[in-house]
Every structure is written in structure tokens, then in C-alpha cells.
Design a protein that fits this description.
The complex is a heterodimer of chains A (668) and B (271). With 668 residues, chain A is of the alpha+beta class. Helices cover 41% and strands 14% of the residues of chain A. Chain A has a 5-stranded mixed sheet with strand order 2-1-5-13-14. In chain A, strands 7-6-18-17-16 form a 5-stranded antiparallel sheet. Chain A has a two-stranded antiparallel ribbon with strand order 3-4. In chain A, helix 2 (82-92) runs parallel beside helix 8 (199-207) and helix 14 packs across helix 16. The longest helix of chain B is centred in the first third of the chain and has 32 residues, at 43-74. The chains are: A alpha+beta (668), B alpha+beta (271).
């Protein structure tokens, strides 16, 4: 009896202690609720509002959608493969359809493990809790944050159906690689809509949200497959699929899209366009405004540009005998501008966007070398009254520079040709003649001409500016040469035709405004000389490659062979190609022989132009009023058979303006 | 007994909570009832606010544009249009509106801006899709656009041109002496018309190219003047009308060669 009393008393004490603990727990929880509730975030009502964020869309020049900004493409549950829904529920929260926001037993177990088994952490978040965390809370791991997250989950469960919660969840979870929401993820990883996901693909995607970086299949494919197999195993365990189905799906290795990394846009053009938009309207409008942006990008030309640069880089690698493991391969940039409007129709900023997002087409200012000479020749014709038939002497030149050593420019070939007409001087890219011209015009004149044509980079007032010692971008060069192509009419380069708000109201549109900045006749004379560069000069490789359309341009190679350019144009398209290393390094063969713009950049240009203009009618450059052609001996500057020229004289045709004549005493 | 009842009660409460989740549901409903009073914080609200700000910004842009378009539609002259379309702003211009503004211009100003024949051609060309005007620091530019916004014709209404228009509009309430351009070349109406009518008949249509403009005016012409500068082959003639003690001037354009003949006749008359 005494023993029974003792046991009874013990039980009673235990009961009281338990009651006190329960009461304490209830009071503590209640207090915590009251403390937390006032700072708890408001939950949007209805819950569907959270995925109702308008998407900014970018279209190409043909009206096809290039991409959607915001990384999310909301989709209804009925448009998602059931495999994915099952996989997510099995992996993340298999009692999702039974609980009311919190899985108590799992929570208690996780709490026990966390408190009493140091080093071990066990998650217990339900899908609703994960949703609450993603919508409202930071990723800071504190008990208070977990508690607040739990409260919000309870509220969401109390006001929304399971379908609504699942719908919100699958549309906002992050899968990595810039993909938010299952539709976007399915497109990014497999190039298909979420409705078409098969069991293996769905399981792979369902495994990613746990750690999108760690399981990123683009970078860690095997790790992602292991995680995928775990998901399939879970699905079999909870009875959503049979063991056989799981095993069959595990045997499949899902094929990923060609996208190689988790970069933002995958396009140098779109990167540049977004920068412009952000500068104009701010990030809120661009990323959250749901605007529609109609760009100038021509998909056919962009494909041609990508392909030409890829092939050109392969050629250059071979020429340089580059090791495929070389961490810093040579780079290239290409910009194509419509000469009639200034629209940027194609842009490549490097050989591989996924390896380097640095946009060399618009961010890299490199020395254009002789590519700058057309500005000098225009300036000399315009200000000194010279013309393509004017004779000058190719000889050693020393130009005194105030406060600095004298400038002694050298020719590329290190030889001198004696008397020669200016057309031939540009065709052969003779530096000593360019130096004599800039000595007379002054660097100011050359810079002024370059500015009129659209060069905006800082240029130093030094004589050597005529030989391209000031850094410029390929976009500037393409745009500036476009002014030559359009006989002296300048169009500002642009990438956006039109911007509309989400309701289709136009908030911006570009009007291509042409402004005459150069004299048409003089411009034509320079263009004619640049045609000669392509036909028989330093860019003749273009003709050798089979490009036969009327074209003009100028190669450019810096003294150190660090930069090799070709900028050229047809009457409708102006294209600049740059090749070189990002760091100071010479473009050269194994034997140390430097690679010129004519060998590295011109073939890329020719390849691009050939593809870009295929099926386009051939057009010749228009001849301005008052221009006449005359045949001239390149050594005398006179018509053949005058001044004692013999029958073997090398002659060319030069365009002359009304007040200009051959064989005049204009020799400077 | 009490302890047992208490025990079972507590056990029942705990069991029923685990079985039916009534605690969570109760708490969830309570939180839902306080939802509206709680702050809009968290990632989703930040995104929402950004969207809100973006839409407000876009609405501002659109509203400004609509206001400009409205004011542009209501403008009664190019000068007024230039005042509302500020540098950097732009708006579309209805064809009929452009025509109305153009027809309001004095003839020589209109011809300076664009030859009427060219305008007829422009309006007749199927390629013309719309007219667009843009404010510039140097004035106003009007573009006749074809497909893809290609500029078919561009008109520059610089500040000088617009200032001249303003001046010409003021001329209507002036006297000929107050206009420096007529200085030294003002004649009494009878002298002027005597000389004019002494010219061969074929000269007259080139001298008074728009007689209707003069016929429309009330009052009598008291004096006439010849402008001291020719523009695009034309010289302006000013006719000072007087009615009820008030004067106003009507400007018409005359062919330069015809004015030269008239000047000769006037000189002969004076001699």
C-alpha cells in the first residue's frame, strides 16, 4: 500500500510537471506569437498575385521574341508535367496534402536532432514554409526567423488551397542558371516547356531547389544525376512510381541544352541593350516594368556573325598553333551597322560569351592602326585641296615634336617607294605619306574628321593619331565608316527601335536622322581609295576568299601586332572586325611572324558579309554629282603618255571633282 | 480522480491537435485576420514595390506624351508647337494638323520651310506613313516618315525661323515705318498702284501673286512698301490698310524680277 502511494505520488508529480511544462510551452509560444505577429509580413491576397509580375520582353528586328527579362515564365498547374509535381512533393514534403502548413513530428524530430546531436542538421520545412521563406524572409538561419516563417506558413494554409500554394511554389522556386519557376527551368535546361518533362527530366529538376549551385547540371552533371536518382528513389518510396519505373528512369541521362553556364542573357547584344535601357529608364522599369523592347538585331545577320567569328577564331588558333588548353585564347569582336539608318544589326563581343561576358565590341578601346587613315585622307583632301591623284614622295620622314623626341614613322614593309599618288599610298598603307599629311593638317584636323564621323573615344592630339594610336571600339569604327558608306551622311548607331509599356503604349521610338557631316564628293574619293584596299591592297584576301560585291575598307594592324582590324562596308552594311588578346600579347605564329588585320580580321569580315548579303541584290556605291574619273600613272600623278610615261606605266582610275585636275603642281 | 480527468483531458487535447491540427488552423485564421494591419515587408513586397514604381514611372512618361500630343493637336502655329515640344520631347502630328499649320504660315515663310509643290508630292506619296516632330535645343524638327521610321523628308524649324514667324505675325498690327525691312521703300498707295498698273499685264500676276489675300481685307490701302531683301527668288511687299483709325499690314510675295520692274517704274514715276 505504501509502495502504491509512492508510485501514485510520483505519477502525480510527473503529471503536474508535464502540465506546468505544457502550460509554459503554450504561454511561451503564445507570447512569441504576440511578439512576432506585429512584425510579421503581410501576405498578398490572393496568393496568385505573387506571380503576377509583368515580364519585360525583348524582340528582334523581325518581331520574334529574343528573351524575357525577370527569369520567370508563370505557368498554370495544368501546364506542368505531373511527374514534376509528384517529384517535388515526394522530395520536399510528401505529407503536403495532409498537413496545415507545419509537419509537427518532423519539426520536433529536427529540433531534437539540432539540439542534442551537435553537428547534425535536419530540415523539416514543408513546401508552404519554403514558400513563406522565399517570399518574405532572408536566408539568415535563426530560430526566430524559422518561427516567423512557420507562422506565415500557417496563415497561407488557412487562406489558400493546396493547389494555389503548389501553383505559387513551382512558379517562384529557384533552379539556378538564372531560372526561376519550373517553366523557365524546363526551357533553360532542356529547351522544352514544363508540360513536356519526362520522369527523368522532372526528377532532375525537382532535385535542384535544395541547392541550385551545388547541383547545377551545366557545371556538375554527375552530382545532379546522383541527386536526380535520390528524387526517383523517394518517389518510389512514397508510392508515386514503382521500383521498376524508378530504375528505368535512373538509366536515362537527360540531355541538356547547349547552354554552357548560368550566365544572364547569353548575348553580348542583349547585355548592351539592357545597359542602355537601364541607363534610360532605371532598373525598376527594365526588370519589373513589363516593357516591350523592339531591338535592331537581325537574327540572320547575328547568326552569320556568330558563325564567322567562330570560324575566324578557329583559323587564328590554327595559324598561331594555339594549345586548346591555353587559358587565354585570342578574342574577336564584330559589329554590323546598317548604313542607311545606323541600326546595329549584329554584334559579337567575344569568341565565347559563356567564358567571358566582357563586351569587346563596345567596352574595349583598342588602337585601330592604319584603320584610322581614311579620316586623315578625308581631312587632307578637304583642308589641303589634295585628291587621290596627287603625287607625294614615300621617303624617310622625321617630324619634330615640341618637347619630345622627333617622330620617325616607319613603313610596314620597311622600304620606300619614292613618288606615288595618294590613292596608291592608302592602298599600300604607306605610313610616311600619312605622316607628311598629318604634319600639314595637324592632329586636330584628323580628330575633327573622326569626331564628325562618330568616333567618341578620347583621342590625344599627337601626330601619330593619324596612324591610329588612339583607342576606339569596333562599334565606333563600324559606325564611323558607315558615314563614308553613305557618302558623308552620319547616322547615330542605335540598338532600340521602339519601347512600349505593358499596355502597348509607345514610350520611345528611334527616328534615324541622317546629318550630312562630310562633303559627298570628297567622301566618294576616299571610298574609291578604300575600294582599292579591298581589291588589290592589304585586304585583298577578301577577294581571294570569293567575296565579289562592291566593297571598301581599311585594314589596321598595330606596330606590336597586338591588334588586327578590318573595317569595311558595302553600300548597305558597315562592319568592323577586331582580333587580338585581352591582355598585351602579340598576334603571331609560332615562328614569331606577326599576324595582320588582312590575315586575321578580313577573312572574318568576308565570311560574315558573304552570309549576310546572300540573296540580297548587289548594289554599287552611288557616284555624287560632279565626279569624273580619269586614268592616272601612279608614279607621276599625270595621265598616261604625258610627262614621258611609257606604255608599261602602272595606271589606276581616280575620281576627281569639278575643280580638280591631274598633273597639277600640288605636290606638297 | 481529478488528476486522472486532468490527465485524460490534456492527453485528449494534445492528441486531437496532432490528429486534427486545430491549433495551427486557429492560429492561421487569427494571423489572417491581422494580415491587413501588418507591414508589407519581404522580397515579394520589394519586388511588388519595384513593379509599382516602374508602372508609376511609365505612367508618367505616357501621360506626359499624351499631354504633349494633345497640346500639339491644339497648337495653332508652329511657334506654339515649338513651345510645347521641348528639347528631347516628341509627338506625332496629324497630317491635317500639319496642313492647317502650314497653310497658316505667310507664303514666303511657308515656301522657305518646304515648297508647296514638294508638300503636295509628299502627301501624295504612298510611302508616307506619318509625321513626327521632335523638340531640339536649336528648335523643332519635323520628320515625314516612311516604313521603319525612315525619314523621307526632314524640316528644321530653328529658333531663327520661328522668331521670324513671330515677327511676321506681329507685323499685322504695325505700321510700315516700324518695320526696318521696308525703310526707304515705302510709297503712297496711289503712287505705288500707278506704277504697278503701268507695267505690262503679264507682269502683274507675278507681282501680286495672291490678290485674294488683299481683297479679303477691309479698309483701304494707304501705303505700300517693298522689302529690302530677296529670298528664294521672292521679295515681300507690304500693304498698309487703314480702317477706323487702325492700321494693319498684309504681306504678300512677289517675284524678284517683277519687283525689279516695279521698282524701275516707281523710280521713273518719282523722277
Amino acid at each position: 500500500m505504501k509502495g502504491f502511494c509512492f508510485i501514485y505520488r510520483g505519477l502525480r508529480i510527473t503529471l503536474y510537471i508535464t502540465l506546468i511544462l505544457v502550460a509554459f510551452f503554450i504561454l511561451a509560444a503564445g507570447g512569441l506569437v504576440l511578439v512576432s505577429v506585429k512584425d510579421l509580413p503581410q501576405v498578398p491576397e490572393p496568393l496568385g498575385r505573387i506571380i503576377d509580375v509583368p515580364q519585360t520582353e525583348v524582340f528582334d528586328a523581325t518581331g520574334q521574341r529574343l528573351m524575357t527579362l525577370g527569369m520567370r515564365e508563370p505557368v498554370g498547374l495544368s501546364f506542368v508535367s505531373p511527374h514534376f509535381i509528384n517529384a517535388v512533393v515526394a522530395t520536399e514534403d510528401h505529407r503536403f496534402f495532409e498537413h496545415h502548413g507545419v509537419n509537427k513530428l518532423r519539426t520536433i524530430k529536427a529540433l531534437y536532432v539540432t539540439l542534442f546531436e551537435p553537428g547534425r542538421v535536419q530540415g523539416a520545412s514543408t513546401i508552404t514554409q519554403q514558400l513563406a521563406k522565399n517570399l518574405f524572409f532572408s536566408f539568415e538561419k535563426t530560430y526566430l526567423r524559422k518561427f516567423r516563417e512557420m507562422l506565415v506558413a500557417l496563415q497561407i494554409e488557412a487562406t489558400s488551397t493546396k493547389q494555389e500554394i503548389l501553383h505559387a511554389y513551382i512558379n517562384q522556386i529557384h533552379f539556378g542558371a538564372g531560372a526561376q519557376g519550373v517553366e523557365r527551368a524546363a526551357r533553360v535546361f532542356f529547351g522544352i516547356p514544363a508540360s513536356d518533362l519526362n520522369l527523368s527530366q522532372a526528377a532532375l529538376l525537382a532535385g535542384l531547389p535544395k541547392s541550385p549551385t551545388r547541383y547545377n547540371p551545366f557545371r556538375h552533371y554527375e552530382r545532379a544525376i546522383t541527386r536526380r536518382n535520390f528524387v526517383l528513389q523517394r518517389m518510389a518510396e512514397v508510392g508515386q512510381i514503382t521500383r521498376q519505373e524508378a530504375i528505368a528512369a535512373m538509366a536515362v541521362r537527360p540531355e541538356l541544352t547547349m547552354r554552357k553556364s548560368d550566365s544572364r542573357t547569353g548575348s553580348y547584344f542583349i547585355d548592351a541593350l539592357i545597359s542602355q535601357l537601364v541607363e534610360k529608364y532605371g532598373e525598376d522599369v527594365v526588370f519589373h516594368g513589363g516593357i516591350k523592347v523592339y531591338s535592331t538585331l537581325d537574327p540572320k545577320l547575328q547568326a552569320a556573325a556568330d558563325s564567322a567569328v567562330a570560324k575566324g577564331m578557329e583559323r587564328l588558333d590554327t595559324m598561331m598553333e594555339m594549345d586548346s588548353r591555353d587559358e587565354e585564347p585570342p578574342q574577336a569582336a564584330l559589329v554590323a551597322v546598317d548604313t542607311g539608318s545606323g541600326a546595329v544589326k549584329a554584334l559579337v563581343g567575344g569568341r565565347d560569351y559563356f567564358k567571358s561576358e566582357f563586351n569587346r565590341a563596345i567596352q574595349s578601346q583598342r588602337r585601330p592602326g592604319s584603320g584610322f587613315k581614311p579620316f586623315l585622307y578625308y581631312c587632307a583632301f578637304n583642308e589641303l585641296g589634295l585628291h587621290p591623284g596627287t603625287i607625294m614622295t614615300d621617303r624617310p620622314v622625321t617630324i619634330p615634336v615640341k618637347g619630345a623626341p622627333a617622330w620617325r614613322p616607319q613603313n610596314f614593309e620597311r622600304t620606300f617607294q619614292g613618288d606615288i599618288i595618294l590613292k596608291q599610298a592608302l592602298t599600300s598603307s604607306i605610313n610616311t605619306i600619312a605622316a607628311q599629311l598629318v604634319e600639314q593638317t595637324g592632329p586636330d584636323g584628323v580628330i575633327r574628321t573622326a569626331r564628325l564621323c562618330g568616333i567618341t573615344s578620347p583621342l590625344e592630339k599627337v601626330y601619330s593619331i593619324a596612324l591610329g594610336t588612339g583607342g576606339v571600339t569596333p562599334l565606333e569604327m563600324a559606325s564611323a565608316f558607315s558615314t563614308f558608306a553613305s557618302n558623308g551622311v552620319r547616322h547615330e548607331p542605335f540598338m532600340i527601335w521602339r519601347v512600349e509599356d505593358p499596355f502597348g503604349r509607345v514610350i520611345y521610338e528611334h527616328i534615324p536622322q541622317g546629318r550630312r557631316v562630310l562633303d559627298a564628293g570628297t567622301t566618294f574619293q576616299v571610298v574609291d581609295m578604300m575600294r582599292s584596299v579591298v581589291d588589290v591592297g592589304s585586304a585583298r584576301s577578301i577577294r581571294q576568299l570569293g567575296f565579289t560585291r562592291p566593297a571598301a575598307g581599311k585594314t589596321g594592324t598595330t606596330d606590336s601586332f597586338n591588334d588586327a582590324w578590318f573595317t569595311g562596308f558595302t553600300p548597305s552594311l558597315s562592319v568592323s572586325v577586331w582580333t587580338g588578346f585581352d591582355r598585351e600579347r602579340k598576334l603571331a605564329t609560332r615562328t614569331g611572324m606577326g599576324i595582320t588585320g588582312g590575315r586575321a580580321a578580313a577573312p572574318i569580315w568576308a565570311d560574315f558579309m558573304d552570309q549576310a548579303l546572300r540573296n540580297e541584290p548587289e548594289r554599287d556605291f552611288s557616284i555624287p554629282r560632279g565626279i569624273r574619273f580619269e586614268t592616272v600613272d601612279i608614279k607621276t600623278g599625270c595621265a598616261p603618255d604625258t610627262h614621258g610615261t611609257d606604255g608599261n606605266a602602272e595606271v589606276v582610275r581616280v575620281p576627281l571633282k569639278e575643280n580638280q585636275n591631274l598633273c597639277q603642281e600640288t605636290k606638297p | 480522480m481529478f488528476n486522472l480527468v486532468l490527465f485524460f483531458l490534456v492527453a485528449a487535447v494534445v492528441f486531437s491537435e496532432f490528429r486534427f491540427d486545430w491549433g495551427e488552423q486557429l492560429l492561421g485564421r487569427y494571423l489572417a485576420s491581422t494580415n491587413a494591419l501588418r507591414p508589407e515587408t519581404g522580397v515579394i513586397w520589394t519586388t511588388g514595390n519595384q513593379t509599382q514604381r516602374a508602372h508609376t514611372h511609365l505612367d508618367t512618361i505616357v501621360t506626359e506624351r499624351q499631354d504633349q500630343a494633345r497640346v500639339a493637336r491644339e497648337a495653332t502655329s508652329f511657334s506654339q508647337l515649338a513651345q510645347v515640344v521641348l528639347p528631347g520631347q516628341w509627338t506625332g502630328l496629324d497630317r491635317e494638323r500639319f496642313k492647317a499649320l502650314y497653310l497658316e504660315l505667310p507664303e514666303d515663310a511657308a515656301a522657305t520651310l518646304i515648297d508647296p509643290i514638294e508638300l503636295v508630292w509628299l502627301f501624295g506619296t504612298p510611302g508616307l506613313t506619318r509625321i513626327f516632330c521632335q523638340g531640339k535645343t536649336q528648335g523643332l524638327e519635323i520628320y515625314f516618315l516612311g516604313s521603319n521610321n525612315r525619314v523621307i523628308r526632314q524640316l528644321d524649324l530653328n529658333h531663327q525661323f520661328l522668331a521670324n514667324l513671330e515677327k511676321e505675325e506681329n507685323f499685322f498690327s504695325e505700321r510700315l515705318e516700324n518695320i526696318p525691312g521696308f525703310a526707304g521703300r515705302i510709297f503712297p498707295a496711289d503712287v505705288f498702284f500707278t506704277a504697278l498698273l503701268s507695267l505690262p499685264a503679264e507682269v502683274l500676276p507675278d507681282l501680286i501673286t495672291t490678290p485674294k489675300a488683299l481683297l479679303r481685307e477691309r479698309g483701304t490701302i494707304v501705303r505700300a512698301g517693298i522689302w529690302n531683301e530677296a529670298k528664294s527668288g521672292y521679295i515681300r511687299l507690304g500693304f498698309e490698310f487703314k480702317e477706323n483709325g487702325e492700321t494693319r499690314i498684309i504681306l504678300v510675295r512677289a517675284r524678284e524680277w517683277a519687283v525689279w520692274r516695279l521698282s524701275m517704274a516707281l523710280t521713273r514715276g518719282e523722277q
